[in-house]
Amino acid sequence: MIRILVADDHAMFVDGIESILKNEKDIEVIGRCYNGQAVLDFLEQQEPDIILLDINLPDMTGIEVSKKVLSSHPSVKILAISMFNEESFVTEILNNGAQGYILKNTGREELLKAIHTICDGQTYFSNDVTNTIMKGLMKQRKESNTKTSFFPKISRREKEVLTLIMQEHTTQEIADKLFISLKTVESHRSNLLNKLNARNTAGLVRIALENKLLD
Nearest CA to 79 among 32, 104, 115? Predict the structure, then answer.
């Protein structure tokens, strides 16, 4: 059972989310919060598997909430849900612990897909959000085409693992495709996080895209 906490300051929106999820046999909404502090207080009592987190809360931003959750409850996954499709919001919350970002005009099927994808340990972005990220990266490259970046050498096997991670394959799927053990996959993932100085898989994907590591 995937346990969900919904955090948004609009009761009608929260009602809509609960209405969508209430008939899903493998999903349970265990709580609702209308501000950031309520989220932090809730986590002191019980931990959901995923927080559906609005970017714009009345007492603190979703980015601030995500950062605090990452620090105190790192096992809790965060799916940002927002009406804002701006690169700065997307990048900032991903850098502070979120595993995904979808827009509030998302339909039922995509919401469920995002929840299941993130629960499986992968990242998820709405198509519009992915386009925003890519446009931002292209702009950065044009502005810094003379700037060079140094990364430790990534082995052939690490590149294979990174490619499959970016294609949203699970750890088990990566192990099966490369004919290696789950422990070896996790070892390569850990090495990549250390080499690229990334906090989590979302950061790993962002850094790989920004620096064209798989070109």
Answer: 115
pLDDT tens for residues 153-208?
888 899 899 999 888 889 999 999 999 999 999 999 888 988 888 888 888 888 88
Query: How is domain 2-138 classified at the CATH fold level?
Result: Rossmann fold (3.40.50)
Residue among 108, 111, 123 nearest 169 (CA): 123
Size of the chain, expressed as the number of residues it contains = 215
Closest CA to 35 of 10, 17, 12: 10
- HEC string of 149-164 equals CCCCCCCHHHHHHHHH
Alpha carbons 168 and 160: distance in angstroms, whole number:
13
CATH topology of domain 156-210: Arc Repressor Mutant, subunit A (1.10.10)
Residue ranges per structural domain of the chain: 2-138, 156-210
Supply the DSSP string of 120-177, one letter for each residue: TT--EE-HHHHHHHHHHHHHHHHHTTT-----PPPPHHHHHHHHHHHTT--HHHHHHH
Tens of pLDDT, residue by residue over 41-53, are: 999 999 999 999 9
What does pTM read for this prediction? 0.65
Same topology, domains 2-138 and 156-210? Answer is no
Radius of gyration, CA atoms only, the chain: 18
Structure tokens, 45: 């009592």
Query: Are 142 and 167 in contact, with CB atoms under 8 Å apart?
Result: no
